[in-house]
Amino acid sequence: MKGWQLSFEGKSLDDAQKCEVEISHVEDGEIIAKVDGFEVVAPIVFHSPHHVFCSCKSKYSCKHEAALIYYIEKHSELLNCQSEEDLISSIDENQLHDFLKDEMKQNPKLKKAFLDKFGQEDVIDKEYYIEKLDQVFRSGEDRSFVDFGIYNIDMMEYALSEFMDNELPKILEMREHSFASSLVEKIAEVLGDDLAVNHDSWYDLAEDFMEYVYILEDSIYLTSDERKSLESATSEIVSYL
Fold first, then answer.
1. Fewer CB within 10 Å of terminal CB in the chain, N or C?
2. What residues have CB less than 8 Å from 241, skipping those under 6 apart?
3. Exposure of 215 by Cβ count < 10 A (0-12 exposed, 13-18 middle, 19+ buried)?
4. Nearest in space to 233 (alpha carbons), one of 162, 180, 159, 181
5. Is the pLDDT of residue 87 over 70?
6. How far apart are CA 220 and CA 215, in angstroms?
C-alpha cells in the first residue's frame, strides 16, 4: 500500500485524517464504509485496496477515499476480507471455546455482556430461600433466645453451614447476587449478635461466611449502594476475626 498518497493532494490527505470512518461491510473482496456520512467502497485486490470509490461529488483527490485507505492501513486485519460470520465459522469449535474462556477471565465486562446475552434465565423462588434460612435460624432458638433474643450458634451450626455451602452457591449461579447479599446480611446480623461468645462453632461459621462476603464484594452485579450495605452489615464480624 506504499505510495498511494501520491494520488491525492496534500490538503485532501490532511483532511482525511480528521474524517470519521465506520466500517459497514467486509466480505466478497471489498470493504464498504461510511466516511462522514458518505459511502466509500474499496475493492481489495491482492490484499490491497484498488480503485476506491466514494459517493460524494468530488471527482478527484477525495478526502473520504483517502480516509478509508488510511483506516485500512491502521487496521490491516480488514484486508482478509472475511466477514465476522466467516471468521467464526472457520475456527475450530474447541479453539473458539478456549479463546472465549481466556478472554472472559481477563475481561469481566465481556463475561457480563456474554451472560446478559446468552445466560440462561433461571427463575428463582426467593420465598423458598428466605423460609429455608428462617428455618435455620429457628433451629438455634433456645431459652437464651426467649430471654435475650440471642440465637444458640452451637444448635444451628450444622444447618447454617449446610445453607451456606449448598444454597448460597445455587443463588450465585443464577446471578442473583443482590438477593444473595441480602441473605448474607441476615446471617451477619445473627453472627454479630453472638460476637461476645468465644467458641469454635462461631469461628467455623464465620470463616465460611466470609468467603461469600469476599465473593460478593468483588461481584460486578452489585450496585455501589448494595456493596456499601454489605460492608456495613459485615464490618463488625470482619474486625472481630
1. C
2. 203, 206, 207, 210
3. middle
4. 181
5. no
6. 10
Choose among 196, 202, 125: nearest CA to 156: 202
Which residues, at least 6 apart from 188, have a Cβ–Cβ distance to it below 8 Å? 209, 213, 233, 234, 236, 237
CA distance 9 to 193: 79
Residue 100: all three cell numbers together: 472465549
- Single-letter amino acid, residue 43: P
pLDDT in tens, 128-176: 999 999 999 999 888 777 777 778 888 888 999 999 999 999 999 888 8
- The 10 Å CB-count burial string (b at 16+, else e) for 225-238 is ebeeebeebbeebe
C-alpha span between 161 and 167 (Å, rounded): 10
Quick one: cell of 52? 476506491
- Our measurement of the distance from residue 139's CA atom to the centroid of its chain's CA atoms, rounded to an integer in Å, reads 39
Backbone φ and ψ for 132, nearest 5 degrees, come out as: -65, -40
| CA 9 to chain centroid | 46
Dihedral, CA of residue 226, residue 227, residue 230 and residue 234, to nearest 10: -170
